[in-house]
Amino acid sequence: MSAQDVEDADDILFAHPPRVVTRWLCGCGEDYPCPEVRFARLVRAAHAQATSTGIEGGGR
Fold this sequence. Notes:
By secondary structure, the protein is mostly helical. The chain is 53% helix and 0% strand. It has helices spanning 3-15, 35-53.
């Protein structure tokens, strides 16, 4: 291992310091929003848009 290798390693460690990252977790344990939450939000947004424009699907 050369002195240059050690100097390069020091430079890399200086340029890549650790950082604190805060993540939200869903009740199911996945990152928030999980796929089910994204789908539910999509359904609610589509329903809100349909009711505001007077277009009700009534799909059942």
